[in-house]
Specification:
The chain is of the alpha/beta class. Helices cover about 50% and strands about 20% of the residues. The chain has 13 helices and eleven strands. It binds nicotinamide-adenine-dinucleotide. Nicotinamide-adenine-dinucleotide binds next to helix 2, helix 4, helix 5 and helix 6.
């Protein structure tokens, strides 16, 4: 089992470990007791994950004589709501949870975000750990301590920064992950190669077929590298004030496409389109070498991610969404662009004409 330590500002949160391996679930009881002692453990998960892994985890905890319960809620982004949050908190109270209890997030990014949010607010905060089960959650959402729920007005509008006591990644969970969820996570993995580590991008190019075949060793190495890159950025900028913004590469246009499609395009597929758009804009405005943009496009395609924006999504719609982006400052939308592979920077605004032409050029 590989271990990565996340070192955080001691005034704000204590440091914790990310453990990565195959069959980590077999050792989960010990890891939890060691890193998060509590009088009562409550697993929070969605119905899909509960059906495959919920009972297994509950048995592991009970097998170590740990008092444990499980709460499940419906799967999917719609459940990342205030209604679900209140329902979970009511169940926690019914189960007798108090400040000596601890939460265990077992699932994808939705479960992790909701559980983290509840952990940071329930009884003025209780500890929690992350056991991420999607690729997206293993390489991205479980690391960094961002928690959130959605409101009818928009995604992630209510949230906190609250670090977990540990992140335990079992690569075996990916055996049951549907193909499109795998591709969605791969978009974030490819992003790390583009913004931070050209050698890792080369590794992904060489191994993309093995990754798609879910080769255990290759997946483990890929996840470990991704976690190291994300934790490195989070350590420097815990609250997303500066450097961490480069993690938004592809996300500005990606979010606009995702919302404009009424969430029929998955987050990963939308981010993939956003990354390609950002690469095209970088090529046009900042001399990103054509060869770099082509490599990005080719790897995204090989990973099963589309590089074409459906005709049904209008350019006007995307531009309107961009203007309303919650991360804009004044009238300027800051885009993360590339000088070259591995060298991202925050640009102070892209002319609307360039945005329009880029989006139009990517239509099916
Ligand atoms: N906090 C952060 O820093 C951060 C970063 C990125 C994304 N996010 C959030 O993450 C969420 C998306 O997360 P996601 O992509 O993991 O989606 P998800 O949590 O909705 O999971 C996707 C689907 O896969 C199922 N599933 C999970 N693990 C499985 C497994 N091992 N086998 C079979 N099915 C499994 C789930 O039940 C669900 O139906 C979004 O809400 C997004 O806002 C948060």
């Amino acid at each position: 089992m590989k271990k990565i330590k996340v070192n955080l500002d001691k005034k704000v949160a204590s440091s914790y470990e990310i453990c990565i391996g195959y069959d980590v679930l077999d050792r989960i009881g010990l890891l939890i007791v060691k890193n998060m002692p509590a009088l009562h453990y409550i697993i929070i998960t969605d119905v899909n994950v509960s059906a495959i892994y919920g009972g297994l985890l509950l048995d592991r905890l009970k097998g170590m004589a740990l008092p444990a319960d499980m709460i499940e809620f419906p799967a999917g982004e719609d459940a990342k709501s205030i209604g679900t949050t209140i329902a979970i908190v009511e169940r926690l109270i019914k189960l007798g949870a108090d400040r000596k209890s601890a939460l265990i997030a077992l699932g994808g990014g939705v479960v992790g975000d909701v559980t983290g949010f509840i952990a940071s607010t329930f009884m003025r905060s209780v500890p929690y750990i992350q056991i991420p089960t999607t690729l997206m959650a293993q390489v991205d959402s479980s690391i960094g301590g961002k928690t959130a729920i959605d409101l009818p007005e928009g995604k992630n509008l209510l949230g906190t920064f609250y670090q977990p006591r540990g992140v335990y990644i079992d690569v075996k969970f990916l055996d049951t992950l549907p193909e499109d969820e795998m591709s969605s996570g791969l978009a974030e993995v490819i992003k790390y190669g583009i913004i931070d580590d050209v050698a890792f991008f080369n590794f992904l190019e060489r191994n993309i077929e093995a990754i798609k075949d879910r080769d255990r060793d290759v997946l483990e190495e890929m996840i470990e590298n991704s976690c190291r890159i994300k934790k490195g950025i989070v350590e420097i900028d815990e609250k997303e004030l500066g450097l961490r913004r480069v993690l938004n590469f592809g996300h500005t246009i990606g979010h606009a496409i995702e919302a404009e499609s009424n969430y029929t395009i998955s987050h990963g597929a939308a981010v993939s389109l956003g990354m390609l758009a950002a690469a095209k804009i970088s090529e046009r405005l900042y001399d990103l070498p054509e060869g770099d943009r082509e490599r990005i496009e080719h790897l995204l395609e090989s990973a099963g991610l589309s590089c074409r924006i459906p005709q049904t999504i209008t350019t006007d719609g995307i531009i309107t969404r961009l203007r309303a982006d919650k991360k804009k400052e004044g009238d300027t939308i800051h885009f993360v662009l590339l000088k070259k592979m591995g060298m991202p920077f925050i640009n102070g605004g892209v002319p609307e004409s360039v945005l329009r032409e880029t989006v139009e050029g990517m239509k099916k």
